[in-house]
Automatic annotation (TrEMBL):
Name under which the protein is recorded: Uncharacterized protein
Highest taxon of source: Bacteria
Keywords: Coiled coil
SUPFAM superfamilies found in the cross-reference section: UDP-Glycosyltransferase/glycogen phosphorylase (SSF53756)
């Protein structure tokens, strides 16, 4: 999995917070399952609270359907909330609440912060992973391992939900096991990856294999794509498959389309790996 670790410049100015990020980065890099990268991330881990830049990052990921983890670095403990807030502080709290709600999950350092978040009900997914920089309750290796496990859980849940939503969209068509619906599902999953600007080569390969091996009714499939308003996207994907996987027109449900939008699809293909 490709993981982006993001800490805003203001937060990174604290030696304590920077030490936590550096330690986590150092130990996460030891796992073969993880590649730390700012390009084509599968999940984004945001560090820090009360920072507009961090809030913007969470909002961007939310809009692009990229799952996120938020580590507030202890800044959502009860003593960080004023008892008698000024109007400005009330607005800041509202902004932090919205950002916290955007995250797929929270990592807090201790029970007090966890209780505060449970009381405020800003996010249901709250996980306690202590800071190995400041406590002997957990080793750096354990901290990284628990964090990696959370990444995996979030990605699995996110992908399951994505497929579930695609299936619900396809419920307008009868016959759940039809080959035409299988092709539509694959194309809608590619549409989701394109929305994230992270089309996986594996997903393209799987669709190419499906089109080469599956017997389907072209007229029925084209009618379904038209109802989904995805016929042009599908035609552009056919163009990409013809170029990259030598899919021939005899196995295409519709004619390929090569235009500016097709070029944007090409630019969204993650060429850094085969997964």
């Amino acid at each position: 999995m490709r993981v982006e670790l993001y800490m805003a410049r203001k937060t990174a100015g604290s030696p304590d917070y920077q030490a936590h990020l550096s330690m986590l980065q150092q130990y996460l890099q030891r796992y073969d399952e993880i590649e730390l990268s700012h390009e084509f991330p599968d999940i984004v881990h945001v560090f820090g609270a009360w920072d507009a830049t961090a809030h913007k990052k969470l909002e961007q990921c939310h809009r692009l359907l990229i799952p996120t983890v938020l580590s507030p670095l202890g800044q959502l403990a009860p003593w960080h909330f004023p008892k008698h807030p000024t109007p400005t502080q009330t607005l800041q709290t509202s902004a932090q609440k919205q950002a916290t709600q955007r995250a797929s999950a929270l990592i807090v350092w201790g029970g007090i912060e966890k209780q505060e978040m449970e009381k405020r009900k800003w996010n249901e997914q709250i996980h306690v992973i202590p800071n190995a920089v400041t406590t002997s309750m957990i080793s750096p290796e354990e901290m990284a391992h628990e964090t990696m496990k959370l990444y995996q859980e979030i990605l699995e849940a996110h992908d399951q939900l994505t497929h579930q939503r695609i299936q619900e969209k396809l419920n307008i068509f009868p016959n759940d096991d039809s080959p035409e619906k299988e092709v539509c599902h694959a194309l809608l999953y590619l549409r989701y990856q394109y929305h994230r600007r992270n089309i996986k080569k594996q997903t393209l390969q799987e669709l190419n294999d499906t089109l080469n091996s599956l017997e389907y009714d072209e007229d029925v499939l084209n009618n379904m794509l038209e109802q989904l308003n995805e016929e042009q996207f599908a035609a552009r994907i056919m163009q990409v498959l013809s170029e990259d996987y030598q899919l021939t027109e005899g196995f295409m449900p519709l004619d390929p389309l090569n235009d500016k939008q097709t070029q944007r699809i090409r630019e969204a293909i993650n060429t850094t790996s085969n997964i």
